[in-house]
Amino acid sequence: MAGFTPADIAFEDPAFLWLLAVPALLTLVWAWRAWRRAADLSGLARHRTLPVRERRSLFGDLPGWLLLIVATTALILAAARPTGPAATIRRSGIDLVVLADASASMHVTDVPGNRWQSAMRFTRRLGDALAWRDDRVAMTVFAHVATPQVRLTRDPNTFFFFLDHLDTRPPFRLEDDTTWDTNLEQAVYWGLRLIEKDQEMQGRSPNARMFVLLTDGEAWSGEVAKSIDRVTDAGIPLHVVGVGTLGGGRLPDGADDPNAVSRLDRRGLQRIAAAGGGQYFELERDGADRIAAALVDLGRRAAPGLTLEARGADLYPRLLAAAMLLAAAAWLFLREKTELALQLAGVSLAAVALARMLA
To answer: 312 exposed, middle or buried (CB, 10 Å; 0-12, 13-18, 19+)?
Structure first.
C-alpha cells in the first residue's frame, strides 16, 4: 500500500515484544562467532603450509544459525499479533428503493392472485437477483399517503421478513377512502427521505442509486411532474414496472361505480419512465426474472468502477509463513546431525507454543 511505514503497524498483544531481547542477544553471539571464525581462518592461512590450496567456507554453518535467529524474530512478532494497513479492491453496489403502489386498484385480479401479490412476488425475485454484499434495498408503499417499510439495508433477512408480512395484502384497508388514491408525489418524497436519512447517518454512499416503481398507473393524484423533477434533480433514475393487463379487471367492492374496470395504463407509465430517466417494463409481458436481471444490470452499469478501500489486515500469518521458510532454508547450511536435531526440536516447540498462544 502506498505510503506504508513501520509506524502504521499496531500490535494486539505487545506484551510478547520483550522476547525480542532473546534474538537480539543471539545476534550479538552470532556476530562474535563470525568474527572468531574469520580470525581463525586468517591464522590458519598464515601458519599452515599445504601443497594444494585449501578451500574453506568463510562462514561455515553460521548462515543457518542466522536464518534461525531471524525466524525466531518472526515468530515472536507473530505472537504479538501485528496488524497493518491493507488495500482491497471494492466494486460499488446498488442502492435500490422500491416504491410499491398499494392503492385499491392493486387488488384487481386480472393477474394470478391479484396485482399486489404479483408485485410482491416480483419484489422477492428482485431481492434474489441482488448480491447483498454491497447492494442495499429500501421499500415504501403508497396510496394517498406513503409509509416506509424498510430502510436501506444490506441484510436480506430484514428485507424478506417484511416481504413475508406484505405478501398477501397491502397495509392500507379498502374501507379507507384514502386507499382509493395513488399519490406518486408522496412515494417519491419518502423514497428520497430514505436516502437522505441514510446519508445523514452513514455518510454518502458510493453505490449507484435507483428507484423502481411498481404500479398499474390507475387514478394518479398529486403533482406527478413535480415528483419526477425531484427524482431527476437528485440524479436518480426512475424505472417503472407495470403490474396488470391492458384488458384489466373489475375494481374491488367499494368503488363508486360497481362495474368500473381498472386497466394497466401502459402509455402513462411509459411517459413517467422516460421523464424519470429510466426504463419501462411489464410483469405480464416481460417476466419477473428477466425484469429483475435487467434492473440489476442497469444498476451495475451505473455503479462507479473499482475503488481501493483501506482496512486493517492481520500480518501474523505472513510472519508465520516467513518463519517457516527461513527455518527450512537454515537446513541447507547445517551439516552436523546434532545441530539438525536441535533445530528440529526448537522449531517444533516454538510452533506448539505459538499455536497455543494464538488459539
So the answer is: exposed
d(CA 328, CA 322): 10
For 82, the grid coordinates are 501485528
Cross-strand pairs, 72: none
- Name the phi and psi angles at 51, rounded to 5: -70, -20
pLDDT of residue 260: 85
Q: How far apart are CA 280 and CA 269, in angstroms?
A: 7
CA distances from 224 to 182, 189, 207, 269 (A): 10, 11, 26, 11
CA distance 143 to 175: 13
Q: Which three cell numbers stand for residue 271?
A: 411517459
**Please, what is the angle between helix 62-79 and helix 316-330, to 10°?**
160
Give the span between the Cα atoms of 278 and 270, in whole angstroms: 9
Residues facing 313 on adjacent strands: 84
What are the φ and ψ backbone dihedral angles of 263, each rounded to 5 degrees? -120, 150
Q: Give the span between the Cα atoms of 63 and 74, in whole angstroms.
A: 17
Report which DSSP code applies to 43: H
Supply φ then ψ for residue 225, to 5 degrees.
Answer: -60, -40
Q: Using an 8 Å Cβ cutoff, are 243 and 264 in contact?
A: yes
Contact between 106 and 170 (Cβ < 8 Å)? yes
Kindly report the length of the chain.
359
Element (H, E) at 141: strand 136-142
**Average pLDDT per block of 10 residues along the chain, 359 residues long:** 60 80 86 79 61 56 77 80 65 87 90 93 93 89 87 90 86 79 84 88 86 84 79 91 92 77 90 92 93 92 63 68 75 62 61 57
State the pairing for strand pair 146-153/136-142.
Answer: antiparallel
Q: What is the DSSP letter of 53?
A: P
